[in-house]
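Q: Got a minute? One more chain.
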Amino acid sequence: MEFVEGYLDMDLIGQGRAVYFENGVAAEGTWQRETLGNHTVYRGPDGLPVLLQPGPTWIQIVPVGPIEGTLTYLHGNAAGG
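A: Always. Here it is, folded:
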């Protein structure tokens, strides 16, 4: 990742860590994309593909490296599960 003319230039090919949030529950997993012509595959903690619910989906790319920040969340659901 690098800054190019005021924008972050991110490599969207490869693989990495992912955190999924759905219905108040967080789960860690991975993402993988072989080429720009391929879809990104999202996998859950069990290694199986994540099945996204129908409707709008929001994907947030968070930089890692020298400008890495902190992502804080609670495992389980909002009711303390």
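A: The mean pLDDT is 79.
Q: Perfect, thanks.
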